[in-house]
Amino acid sequence: MIIAEALKVLITTIVAFLLALFISPFVYRLIVGLKFKKQIRVSREAPIFSKLHKGKEGTPTMGGIIIWGTVLILAVVFLVLHYFLDSFWDYANFLDRSQTYLPLAFFFVAALFGLFDDLMGVRRIGPNGGGLHMRHKIIGYIVLSALGAWWFTVKLGWSSIHIPFLGVYNIGWWYIPIFMFVVFASAFSANETDGLDGLLGGVSLFAFGALTVVSFASGLYNLAALNGAIAGALLAFLWFNIYPAKFFMGDTGAMALGVMLGITTMLTNTAFLLPFFGVILVIESVSVIIQLFSKKVFKRKVFLSTPIHHHFEALGWPESQVTMRFWIISIVFTGLGLVIFFADKIFFR
Q: Are 52 and 313 in contact (CB under 8 A)?
């Protein structure tokens, strides 16, 4: 049984990789034909960013369609084959009411929200011609996280959270703000991290790879297959997104991945491991918060530019070097998170 489920996850991951690799040229031609090109915000508050990334203006964006489009195609195809063909497709199908309906729904809603933001950006609508204002994105994150918290507490009856090495605690209504914070923070942080070629794609690949393992070890085999599909699609996306990027992910990919990361973490009850699986996301968002606080209170900057990957660019680090070093940090902390997960599972449960 376990071997069969492991094969299912592995096959789903490989199929997602091959499918994403296949559809990437078609998506590229689509976004080029529709003139979906990245517009660089011109802002007095971020002159360093504008200077460093002016050369990226005009690069095709919304490549995140490849990631969530691959997952959507697989979900629909497997579901149709499950209903009309033999039992093998019942085995291959990863749609499951208790495990994957909710994360898939929020994955695609966030993707559409990000797609709308991208469309505004390519048409130079919004503050500095860069799409939705940050406060509007924050409102969107809050609404999505609130809906997720409501579903988990009211429909699924969740009210407990697991703390590694200490156990499971019933926290009652406190589960709602914690859920909202996790989803909001992961969505916001993913959006902040998506600033260099291959950066968010790489760190997301490691995070979803880890969550695939966590889901499988927790007996959530369909959720593991879904996470594997996302990881496979991310791997194919990175083929074209590593420096120099042929196209960018766009908010349609960043928002979807961020929300999905938070939802999956709550489904696997591993919220306290998210800072390990998404360590770069944490570092990026904390750097932004520190910078804003320092500018408001002390009237000076802590970093040359934020998120912090732009700070290292401003120091003279080549873009690819920043990305690779952040990938290394992500791999180390993701591995540490998995060690904590299995140590807790073996010795404290």
A: yes
